[in-house]
Each structure stands twice: as structure tokens, then as C-alpha cells.
Amino acid sequence: MNISKLPVSITEELHLHNSDPHRRASGLSDIILGGQDGLVNVLGVILGVAAATGDTWVVMVAGLAATFAESVSMAAVAYTSTLADADFYESEREREYRHIQQVPKLEQDEVRSIYERKGFHGELLEKIVDTITVNEDVWVAVMMAEEHRLAPIDRGQALRSALVVGFSAIIGSLIPLIPFAFVSVKVAMLLSVIMTAIVLFIVGAYKARVYVGHPGKSGLEMALIGTVSALAGYAVGALLKVPPTP
Length: 246
What we know:
Blueprint: H1 8-19, H2 21-53, H3 56-102, H4 104-117, H5 122-133, H6 136-146, H7 156-174, H8 185-210, H9 215-239
């Protein structure tokens, strides 16, 4: 089929389906996912341990253990969830092929309904339907994108996603640990919270600029949610404080 002969709107949509803009944004999403999770979780752990023990060495050990456990866990989750999404897409795609072969008239009506809602009518609408449904691959691609709102996922992306998420989790996790290597536990706790809040604010603001939203509001929301979540660890540590050795 000659794509150049399609109506402009259809050509643009097929181009979007093939280039998959969501795939280009997945790298940033993976970085934010791993980094934010590492920041918040490890901050919660070290604040709890610091409040309970007041021992810098114990805090560092607990923080490093949480760092690597978190990174491995997050990488594994990213890997398996990406594969699960790919499996789901493939199963839905195969189902659409079966529907096209078994009930083509019904599937044509669904295509017609989709583009009618987009404002196409009459002869142009029928031309669009005929153009799409003449090729099963195009037909299924349109149904997957328009009806199911699903984009194809490269299985090779699973390993890339796992590596990015895992590495980002390590980097994010190490940030709240830095102050404990240089200052006293009490000062380090305060600096750790401040540093984490600043990083989360920057990440939230940047995410809003790349995607959509108000950078200041998004940054503040992420900083507040992350910091409050981490302070729950401090509350547990303070409540279960280890009594001083006589």
C-alpha cells in the first residue's frame, strides 16, 4: 500500500503509531522512577536508623544495604513489568487479528465509529475506512492505538529499562547518604532531608517542563510527598529508639 496516497490525517496517525513517541519518553520515566524511589526509600531507612541508634556506621551500613537491595528490586520490577506489558500487547494484537478475520464487518464499523468521532463524515469517512481496512496490519495497528490505547513494546526495551531504573535507583539512593560521611548524625539528618527535597523539587519541575504541568507546582508536590513519606521512617525509628548501652 502506498502511504503517500492516504489522507494527511491518516498518514500522520500511522507515522505516530510507527515512531511511538511514548517510547522516546520512556527513558526519562525510568530515570525518574528509579531515582525518586531510591531517594525516598533510602532516606526513610537512614532517618529511621539514625533516629533509633544515632550511630553513623550503622546508618551507613543500613543505607548501603538498602541502596543495593532497592536497585536490584527496582531493576527486576522494571524488567518483568515491561515484559508483562509486551505480552499483554501481543495478546491483544492477536485477538484483534482474529476479530478482523471472524467478524470483519463489526471491526469495520468500529473503525468507522472511531473516525466519525474525530469529525470525519460522508465520502471522506468511507475512504478512510476503506484505506485502513484494506491492509490487515494497518487495520490492527489503528485498532490497537485508537480502541485499546496501546503502543507496541520492544522486548529488548525490558533490559534497557531495568538497567536505567537500577542505575538511577543507586544514584538516587546515595544522595541522602552523602552528609553522613562528613558531619554528625544530627546535622546529617537535617542536611539529608534538605538535599533530598531539593533534588525531588528539581526532578518534579523538570518533569513538568518535559511533559505537561506547572514546574513550580510539580516540583513542590514531589518534594513534599517524597519528604513526608521518608519522614515516616524517622517516626518509626524515634518510636523504637535503641536505649543507650550502660
